[in-house]
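Morning!

This is the sequence you dropped in the shared folder:
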Amino acid sequence: MKSVIVFTVVVLVLATGVWGRVPPGVNDTIGGPWPTGEEIMRRIDENLVVESAVSRATMIIHGRSGTRTITSKAWRKGRNNSLVEYLSPPREKGKKMLRLGDKIWNYVPEPNDRIITISGHLLRQAVMGSDLSYEDITENDRLVERYEAVVTGEEQYEGRPCWVIGMTATAKDVAYHSRRVWVDKERWLPLKEERFAKSGRLLKTTRITEAFQVEGRWYPKRMIFKDMLSRGNGTDYIIESIDFDVQILDHMLTKAALRR
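The structure's back. Tokens below.
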């Protein structure tokens, strides 16, 4: 009888993680199952990755010398094909940014009616002096195809229960080698991110401070980007409106269309 009791105690100790080991898929904090890192990334992708969309946005850049506000309209089709047209202020109106695959073209109507090609490492430069890079503003990749993830815990963030995951790149051509992400358990949005270089240096932080539900998915309404290598005070990126699964004709996303 004594041996049976001892065996039962040992089993309970192992199952409850008293020895610091938790069985895979078991949450030792709330007693329920943990999703895997891949499952969490897939849920994020369901919200954020689009097949086609048309949106309007406002970017508020808090620079060292003051604050600038830029509005734009964007068309997105497929993985990495998109067009952004700047609407205001007057000095930026008419400028456009086209991304096709791994190349971007900037169109500047005045004074020289120029088209500037951006590719390679230049994709990581800041857009309009903001805290967003060209890759940040046009990104539409599925996380599950670019990263592997491990759930490291759970925390409250701004009153929302979150899974905390660590992501490491599996693709070579990513802007951020690793990320630490706080993912809303209910809405499956990355409420907070820390994005790192391969060296471990913190490059950028992002925060979703407001979200809204559109056509059955949760989507960021207001985000704050902070480039940790910049001396500015961050950039607010606000989605004013967005429509998904909109028909976008192929001719709209071409270099020839930039001058129209």
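Headline: Helices lie at 2-16, 37-48, 134-138.

More detail when I'm at my desk.
O.
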